[in-house]
Amino acid sequence: MAIKIAINVGGAAGKDIKNAVQLVQAADSMGVDCVWSAEAWAQDSITTLAYLAAKTERIHLGTGIMQISARAPSMTAMTALSMNEISGGRFRLGLGVSGPQVVEGLHGVPYARPLTRLKETVDICRMAFAGEKLQYEGKAFVLPRPGGEGKALRLDIKPSNIPIYLATLGPKSLEYTGEAADGWLGTSFTPDHPEAHFDFMKKGAERAGRSMKDLAIAAQVYAEVGDDVEGMVAKAKAGVAFQMGAMGSAKTNFYNEAIQRAGFQEEAREVQRLWKAGQREDAIALVPDAMVTQFQVLGPPDVVRERFKKYRAVGVDCLNIRTNDKASPAERIAALEQIMEIAGSVD
Question: What CA–CA distance (Å, rounded) separates 26 from 7?
C-alpha cells in the first residue's frame, strides 16, 4: 500500500487565505489524505479549517494542533463536534500541550501537569463525543464546578466518533499516546531512529492491551525534490537551529530533547546554547548535515522514493508534508503533484 500524503497550513494561511484555498483545493483533487492546520501565536487552528471545509469535498481536515490550554475541554469538544458537522464528518481532532512560553506567556495559564491536563481533556472530549453528560472529577478539571449552581450538561449536538490525534514528544506523553490515542502527530522524527519515539508508544500500547497497529502514525516532514541537495541542506539549517534553540525555553524544549534521543545529544545542546546566547549564525553553522537529511526528505525523485519507503517500512502510515511556503501557489502545487506521484510509486 502506498504511503498517504497530508499537507500542513499554518499561520501564513490566514494572511493569504486565497493561496491556501488554491493549494488545498488542488490537494483535494489529487487525493491528498488530510490538511492539518497549526496553532501557535498567530491564527487559531479552527477558523481556516472551517473556511476550507466549505471549499473542499473529500480531503480530511485536522487541527495540528489545537492547544489544550487555550480552551476549556468542553469548548474543545464543542468546537470539534461543530467542525465535524459542517465538514460532513471529515474532521480529525489533533491536540497538544504546547510549551510554557506560549501557555504561560500568551494564555496566562500555569504550565502545570501538562500530561494530566491532556489526559483529562481527552477523557472529557470522548464523553462529549459519545453524547454523555459532562460529569467529571479529575485532578485538573471537575465538572460541574463544585459548590456552584452548575449542573452536568449533555452537549446539544449530534454525537460522533471523532478520531483524536496527539502531538507528543516526551517519553511519558508518548506512552499515553500509545495507550489511548487514535493517532500520533509526529515531529522531530527520523525513520533512521524510530525507537526515539516508538519504544515509548509501544510500551503504552502494550500496557493497554493494544499494539502499534491500533495507532495511525502521521509524521511531519519537510520535503523538496531536486538535484541541489547541498543547497537544500544549507538552506534548511536556519530552521533547524531555530527549532533547537527557540521552540521552547532553556529548560523545556521537547523538539530538542527528541533530536537528542535520535543520536544528536551534544550537537542539539550546543546549538541551543549558542542560540539562547544570541549567537545565531554560530548556531546555524554548527547544525550538522545529518541533522537535516535524517529529518527531512531532500533530493532527486529516486532518493525521495527510497526515503518514503523507509518511513513506511518503520510503520509510518502518512507523511504530513511541508513544502516551501515562500514559493508561489503554482510552484507549491507543482511540488505537491511531484511528491504525490513519487508516493504513488512506493511499492
Answer: 11
Q: What would you report as the CA-atom Rg of the chain, rounded to the nearest whole angstrom?
A: 20
Find out whether 201 and 184 touch, Cβ atoms under 8 Å: yes
**Contact between residue 91 and residue 194 where contact means Cβ atoms under 8 Å apart:** no
Task: Render pLDDT for 133-174 as a digit per residue (tens, 0 to 9).
Answer: 999 999 999 999 999 999 999 999 999 999 999 999 999 999
106 shares a domain with 38: yes
Stated pTM of the model: 0.93
CA 195, 200, 205: angle at the middle one, nearest 5?
Answer: 120
Amino acid at position 57, single letter: E
Do 64 and 112 have their domain in common?
yes
**Cα–Cα distance for residue pair 85/88, rounded to 1 Å:** 5
In this structure, the dihedral spanned by the alpha carbons of residues 66, 69, 73 and 78, taken in order and rounded to 10 degrees, is: -40
Question: Are the C-beta atoms of 223 and 319 separated by less than 8 Å?
Answer: yes
Q: Look up cell 506512552; give the residue.
A: 175
d(Cα 340, Cα 183) in Å, to the nearest integer?
A: 22
- Rounded Cα–Cα distance for residues 107 and 191 (Å): 35
* Local structure of residue 335 (DSSP, 8 states): H
pLDDT tens string 38-82: 888 888 999 999 999 999 999 999 999 999 999 999 999 999 999
Domain around 234: 229-298
3-state SS track over 126-190: HHHHCCCCCCEECCCCEECCCCCCCCCCCCCCCCCCCCEEECCCCHHHHHHHHHHCCEEEECCCC
Check whether residue 141 and residue 250 sit in a common domain: no
Name residue, grid cell 513506511. 312
- The answer to whether residues 289 and 333 belong to one domain is no
